[in-house]
Amino acid sequence: MKKLLFNRVFDGADEMFAIAEKALAEALKKHGEGAQVKMPNTGYFLANCLAYLNKKVTTLGELKACFEEAKAEWMPRNQRLYDAFRRGKGTFIAGEVVEAIRYLDTPEPYGDGPNREFWGHMSDAEVRELGVPLVTGDIPGFVVIIGKAPSDEEAAELIKGYQSRAIFVFLIGECIQQARRMGLTLNFSVRVVPVGPDLWQIAHIISLVNRAAMIFGNTPPGDHLGFDDYTFKRIRAFVNAFAPVPDLEVAWGGGAIAMGFPVISNDTNDTWPVPKSLIIQENTKDFIETSLEARDIKIKVTKIDIPVAFSTAFEGEIIRRADMHCDIDGAKLDCFEWVTTKETSEIEDHKIEVIGPDIDTIKEGDRSQMGFVVEIAGKNMQKDFEPVFERRIHHYLNYAEGIMHTGQRDLIRIRVSKNAFAAGFRAKHFGEILYAKLKGDYDAIIDKCQVKVVTDPALLKTLRADANKAYEARDARLLSLTDESVEVFYTCILCQSFSPAHVCIVTPERLGLCGAVSWLDAKATNEIDPNGSCKVVTKKEPLDDVLGIWQDVNDAVQEASHGSLQQVTLYSIMTDPMTSCGCFECICGIEPTTNGVVIVNREHTGQTPLGMSFSEMASMTGGGVQTPGFMGHGKQFISSKKFMKAEGGPARIVWMPKALKELVGARLNKTAKELYNIDEFTSMIADEEVSQDPESLAAFASEKGHPALQLEPLM
Ligand code: SF4
Ligand code: ZN
Question: E strands, 352-397, where?
Fold first, then answer.
């Protein structure tokens, strides 16, 4: 006789609790109650214990207490659907217990680096990385694939099917080996993550999702129904479970359903489907369609005439030297990309011209050259939009499977993989991509577009010189754009889909904190849809020049935040600072001993002199609330004359990771020279090689005569 679904959930949860119980008992015997328990690179402790029980677990003793609490809360066997689903939560805690012990026994139990066999725990930085693609719809959803597909081929087909629809894929169990046997690349950058071989590694996925609710949604720890509400409404996730589905897996599935994530399975043992929650789809080949429908995900497809797959999921793909057909190298040869405005009469829409030899004339593995001239006409086209479109080229070309693009302007580098070349990818396909994506994304601005793909060396030389003249003119225009010189600012509320109260005010000298929305980007977005995510903010009523307060800005944030914000200053970190949503590139926080601020970027995993890592600092702010003393911001903002202007400007910066210093150094030094007449300001800023604690930081600052030491006290 078939077991009732309820009983499958209950029995599975019992099984999971027993596994955790055993692991806990062994760990206590081996390490004792005081042993430190933590996951790497997170400011959220064990995120599931924090989310569901409001417990900041740091020791094995505390972990045990959490487990006991979960047992008391989620063990009772009531034959009610509600309890069955809720038991999933106990299962999540039990799974987290097992994994936390694993990380206690062996730090980095799954190895580290992008080629590790299993991923295990995902860092806060990885969670935050998802912010922008989620809000822009570049990641329309998440799938957790569990178990063994009927064949290796089918596993690969399913994964690639999701990948080509830009759905983020997590793999659990045997499908990982199946994908590996089929030669698929598996890592976080290509958005196919081999989480782990056992069911309880699902706890890491639940942890990622719960941290998203805390980071972006400001969901208060302990409010476990609040987490379900957030995940149901804002995270479009679902599960594909291959038959046979054991009871243990059913228990995890119950939890997923409680979070609002439907489970699609071909296991006909569960003949009791729950509409929109547990869906039996016997034909695994229809998993994708059934899943997308269950979670109401509509995929916008841009039809592009190219022989390779095209999806945002391929943006992070790396093409190694050994795998490349050719290396288009702007550092050594004449290459460039240039978007320019033309009259309508000068353009034949969708004309793609290849001028010079095609890439099949290049010997495999050789260096070569290429330039793109993208010519645009439209009633609403403005010269100011040229750099906005030009910067999109980097993303668009990377979306093609087997194409890797880095750099910009005349310092581009493009690799075409052997596989892409073998599939028939040629020079004209670059033009097809640029045409289709630009027209698709900016149809309100671009009426006509044509692309010249140039490979002829002589022509490349002259066109590159023309492009450089255009870049220079553009830079002069960008320099003239200051907060004072423009008539309007813009709001951006794109992140409200995850962070409902957050608003960015985007100005020429302060780009959005994600680093992806400059004032020109916001202007173009507003042009496409004046009532969309970026609205005009006038600046007719200035209230305070130093702090950067305008009545118009206050009115705009009040409206856009639905009343949760009353006032923001644009130039202060201490007085009514701008809020953070969670997807910021950098976080800065005040450092009392030097009277300055420490800035750390998302990529940096080490400690700062504040005694906190990026993750820990980042967890001090987010979710659209104002937190004086901590502020998320874009990398480019660091060299802006408006950075903390109210508190003395960039002269407050006392510490940054070395890599960030190198990235923003030239501009920051220029700003410091202009503002304070200081030469080589970055040499006064400490980094991880000089200091990781307040004492050595203070010593370094005083040795260098750092200007922050002379400024008014911050607190
Ligand atoms: Fe989100 Fe602000 Fe970036 Fe807009 S500008 S996408 S609101 S972080
Ligand atoms: Zn954001």
Answer: 352-355, 366-368, 371-377
